[in-house]
Amino acid sequence: MSASTAIADRATAAAHHPARSRVSARVRGGRFRRFLVPLLLVVLWQAAAQAGLVSSRLLAPPLDIAAAAWTLTASGELPYHLLVSLQRVVAGLAIAITAGVALGLIAGLSRLGEDAVDATLQMLRALPFLALVPLFILWFGIGETTKIALVALGATFPIYLTLFGGIRGVDPKLLEAGRILGLGRAAQIRHIILPSALPQALVGLRYALGTAWLSLVVGEQINATAGIGFLVMDAREFLRTDIIMVGLLVYALLGLGADQLVRALERRALAWRPSLIREA
Amino acid sequence: MAPSVVRLRGLTRRFQGPAAPPVLDRIDLGIAPGEFVALLGRSGSGKTTLLRTLAGLDPVTEGEAVLPQRRAVVFQEPRLLPWKKVWHNVALGLAGEARATRDKALEALREVELSHRAEAWPLTLSGGEAQRTGLARALVRQPELLLLDEPFASLDALTRLRMQSLVAELWQAHRPAVLLVTHDVEEALLLADRVLVLANGRLAEDLPVSLPRPRRRAAEGFDMLRVRLLNILGVDEDGHDAAARAA
Ligand SMILES: Nc1ncnc2c1ncn2[C@@H]1O[C@H](COP(=O)(O)OP(=O)(O)O)[C@@H](O)[C@H]1O
Ligand SMILES: [Mg+2]
């Protein structure tokens, strides 16, 4: 962000200030209102099922789904599969973050690194990574490795791209100011380049989490013997739409939870940004 | 006269090829230790280019430049790192133990009357506060040469007046040599020992200002110098463009 846009931001922040409390009151009220329509839809869905308008073989009614969720949790089945899925995502993401950050730093901080890394990654990125599934199965078999590799591959690109872009987008005026303050290259990277790339890199992390779940869903449908995906595929064999719905719900909640996690991280790491200052 | 902290000899700077007229054309300039010099010139006359050379930010390709070791710059925009608290911006790049540099930064902030904002994020500062932080960041390095590139240009009139007297006070207290780039003739006369005018790549005027300090606009001789400088800049007393009216 350049100094001049920063000032413009500050000006807008100041301009919005008087209206702030009213707006946030409306948002708080709206938060409950926002759930009204989905709630109504669930009630209608239940009513339709009980009236026999929707076949519960094709789509289980909400109460059945809740019951299935309860049974699966109580039996320990759901927690077990959830843990397996989580392990895959965490392992894949750990690899993706390590690789994405390393490659982003190499390409972002040196022209030589850019020449070595960027073209290759841009080409790989053009390939829809899920198309690599057959190749991965040949290379890694149908075990854990393929699933983790799939998560890792998909999540690496957004982290790499945003970090690279963030590093290259650093305001040259700030670098110049740093130079005249006597900062060496290492200090410039630490105090100027990396902090200025962080907001973008965190957006990349958010994208990475999104692709990670997608890869997980695909990966877990390849002959898995455990995990949420297995639970869903297994339930399909027995036409248990209630369990399938539980699996989908868990995927949704996991995605939501991960997003909240990154948001919390952003609030801490980017406390200096005017929008966040305004909320505080 | 004391030995100069800055010496430029035949400094020439071009951005286009050798055929085009240079932005700076064989500039000779010396600045004595503790001297306050103002540099006037129309927009685009090369003031920032000259200041950047004195800051050591641009390479010297034609002519020679002797510069002091400790130089500090306050730019027109504050150029603070938004992710570092105000005091941390001031302490940035200072050598020494963390505790000691922090104390130095806080002391510099006290001098610019910003102690109460030491822990603030830069993006929450007003324009004047941001420029004062920039000033503290420059002063804390105890520069031999302080370079100010239109530091008050984007401030409102009242804040600008306060900043001008603050700069005068700090200069009296620390006595660095100062080069203040400005397009405001009165500002130059209120602050400087010497006023330079840059036109067509050359220093068209080098005018000593011997008015007593603290300076006042009402002082005898002030208005005469003002009119003279305005004429050199090609503007008549009422602010009309003299060249345009003659045409
Ligand atoms: N990096 C650059 N590349 C090309 N032209 C430049 C560059 N910097 C300045 N100039 C040109 O040099 C002239 C003087 O610019 P500058 O020193 O910024 O003027 P001032 O600060 O007096 O307004 C202008 O015509 C400007 O377009
Ligand atoms: Mg300029």
UniProtKB/TrEMBL annotation, chain A:
<feature type="transmembrane region" description="Helical">
    <location>
        <begin position="89"/>
        <end position="112"/>
    </location>
</feature>
<keyword id="KW-0813">Transport</keyword>
<dbReference type="Pfam" id="PF00528">
    <property type="entry name" value="BPD_transp_1"/>
</dbReference>
<dbReference type="InterPro" id="IPR035906">
    <property type="entry name" value="MetI-like_sf"/>
</dbReference>
<dbReference type="InterPro" id="IPR000515">
    <property type="entry name" value="MetI-like"/>
</dbReference>
<feature type="transmembrane region" description="Helical">
    <location>
        <begin position="243"/>
        <end position="262"/>
    </location>
</feature>
<comment type="similarity">
    <text>Belongs to the binding-protein-dependent transport system permease family.</text>
</comment>
<protein>
    <submittedName>
        <fullName>ABC transporter permease subunit</fullName>
    </submittedName>
</protein>
<feature type="transmembrane region" description="Helical">
    <location>
        <begin position="148"/>
        <end position="170"/>
    </location>
</feature>
<feature type="domain" description="ABC transmembrane type-1">
    <location>
        <begin position="82"/>
        <end position="262"/>
    </location>
</feature>
<keyword id="KW-0472">Membrane</keyword>
<keyword id="KW-1003">Cell membrane</keyword>
<keyword id="KW-0812">Transmembrane</keyword>
<keyword id="KW-1133">Transmembrane helix</keyword>
<feature type="transmembrane region" description="Helical">
    <location>
        <begin position="124"/>
        <end position="142"/>
    </location>
</feature>
<feature type="transmembrane region" description="Helical">
    <location>
        <begin position="35"/>
        <end position="54"/>
    </location>
</feature>
TrEMBL record, chain B:
<keyword id="KW-0547">Nucleotide-binding</keyword>
<dbReference type="Pfam" id="PF00005">
    <property type="entry name" value="ABC_tran"/>
</dbReference>
<keyword id="KW-1003">Cell membrane</keyword>
<keyword id="KW-1278">Translocase</keyword>
<protein>
    <submittedName>
        <fullName>ABC transporter ATP-binding protein</fullName>
    </submittedName>
</protein>
<dbReference type="InterPro" id="IPR003593">
    <property type="entry name" value="AAA+_ATPase"/>
</dbReference>
<dbReference type="InterPro" id="IPR003439">
    <property type="entry name" value="ABC_transporter-like_ATP-bd"/>
</dbReference>
<comment type="similarity">
    <text>Belongs to the ABC transporter superfamily.</text>
</comment>
<dbReference type="GO" id="GO:0005524">
    <property type="term" value="F:ATP binding"/>
</dbReference>
<keyword id="KW-0813">Transport</keyword>
<dbReference type="InterPro" id="IPR027417">
    <property type="entry name" value="P-loop_NTPase"/>
</dbReference>
<keyword id="KW-0472">Membrane</keyword>
<dbReference type="InterPro" id="IPR050166">
    <property type="entry name" value="ABC_transporter_ATP-bind"/>
</dbReference>
<keyword id="KW-0067">ATP-binding</keyword>
<feature type="domain" description="ABC transporter">
    <location>
        <begin position="6"/>
        <end position="225"/>
    </location>
</feature>
